[in-house]
Amino acid sequence: MAPSYDVLIVGAGFGGIHQLYSLLQLGLTVKVVDKAAGLGGTWYWNRYPGAMSDSPSHLYRYSWDQDDLQSYPWSDNYLDAKDVLAYLEHVVDRHGLRKHLQFNTELLSAKRNPEDYTWGVETSQGPFQCHYLITALGLLSEPNWPNIPGRELFRGDLYHTSRWPDKYDFTGKRVAVIGNGATGIQLITRIAPEVGSLLCFQRHPQYSVPARRRTVTQEERDQINNSYDEIWNHVRDSAGGMGVTESKTNTMSVSPAERERVYQAAWDEGGPFRFCLGTFADLYTDEAANHSACEFFRSKIAQIVQDPEKRRKLTPTDFYARRPVCDSGYFEQFNRDNVDIVDILETPIVGFTSDGLKTSDGTVYMLDMIICATGFNAFDGPYKKLNIVGRDGVTLNDHWRDGPSTNMGMAGANFPNLFMINGPQAPLANVPPAIEGQVGFITRAISHAEAHHKDHSVPRKVTIESTKEGEDEWGAFCNLIRDMTLFKTVDSYYFGGNIEGKRRFVYVFLGGLNLFLQKLKECEESGYSSFHPF
Ligand code: NAP
């Protein structure tokens, strides 16, 4: 017989671990499975050189373990990937969660059984049965490999940043990096001094702010420790959840000199969110405002990059409306003789060769290693290959045929007792507090549902399921907010624009963490009005 649990959680990253901890407090039986060989989710997979979180260190953690917040050591204002992984390992051990985790176990399919109100789940390690199924698959977990013909021809090393090998050596080699998002920028900056030569194949240039990574003094740490309650309240009351004092001033309401001063202060202080949220309130809603920020960025790139041709290629002309990024000397790397840039909008890559990459102008770039920093099939990507069959035989893929609609990124009509953490249309914000909002909601919803099942009859006829109206309303709200912003002007993964042929859709809630948490609260206070009665 399949092992049976009250709740099966799929994914042992930030979301899955917190969800496990919370549901154990309710006295439920819970198992977490993950296809990886260890815990950490994003931080298990993304081990490429230079991988770092760009959220402030003291906010890239759980808020609920007050003692741990006070004592857990961290040295810099940002955390390396390995530090985040070590933190999650520590949390799991500190709270005795390890025995509930099972690795190397990939979710394949799940089917709702109407007779006994359970989910029958198939994994690579056999079946499970559960009353509630919670997927914490990660919003950025399905690698996007570029669709370049002839991959099998290449005789050198070929990597994707999110599937980084244990053993690698690029010392002195001819290396190419395709992609210059948050990942590519970190990777390029880190490896440029070590490789023989580095060719960066760029589709769109980036506006990037210095990260200004530094050691945090004991005095600063004491100050943080003494005001954590206030800090978390501020985080939850902000759009980004990044600890930034978010500006309420409109850009054009101040003089050009004042704009320059404000931008320069953010540039000097460092960090992408200090710049995009802390300078002016309307950077993403007003074209002139956004344009002024772009001008500032372009002037910085012009000051840094010496070679005119490299500078031209590295200078963006579109809106500042991709995921904001930061760097520790990205543009500076292009002043090295061993680093060059290929603009693949001008000369697209036409294929791999046995020795490298060929572009449309006939050039063959001879390479020993090609690294794809090409991001992810985000949000619904990891769900696409699953066969999830809900009520009345409806599959999730069928239900999402016109785009992955959800109720607040967490639930869907026809899928009773199925919750997603950071599913499509979840909020774009600092991930740990955004996850905490969702996990809190899911835990209380399950607790509420369970309270309706006091007689403990078998089968437990308790269900909680989003209404179709709840899902439609959330989709409309996501669209409304998208239409109010300049994000829509750029083809990014927020809208499926990073992948050829992917459906254009609003895959993310752009209204901010504070508004998202308010919506969760309203739903709970209404007695879960956008969910079917239990
Ligand atoms: P990304 O932002 O989607 O960037 C992927 C890059 O690859 C882009 O430059 C993209 O070009 C390019 N690309 C994609 N497909 C391509 C193709 N077929 N041919 C050529 N170029 C292609 O992915 P990412 O850099 O991995 O970052 C994803 C997200 O992960 C970030 O936005 C962030 O949320 C998270 N992340 C965070 C950190 C951090 O510091 N906290 C670090 C890394 C990642 P276009 O711009 O033209 O699409």
Automatic annotation (TrEMBL):
Keywords recorded for this protein, A-Z: FAD, Flavoprotein, NADP, Oxidoreductase
Domain of life: Eukaryota
Listed PANTHER family: DUAL-FUNCTIONAL MONOOXYGENASE_METHYLTRANSFERASE PSOF, L-ORNITHINE N(5)-MONOOXYGENASE-RELATED
Protein name: Cyclohexanone monooxygenase
Origin species: Aspergillus cavernicola
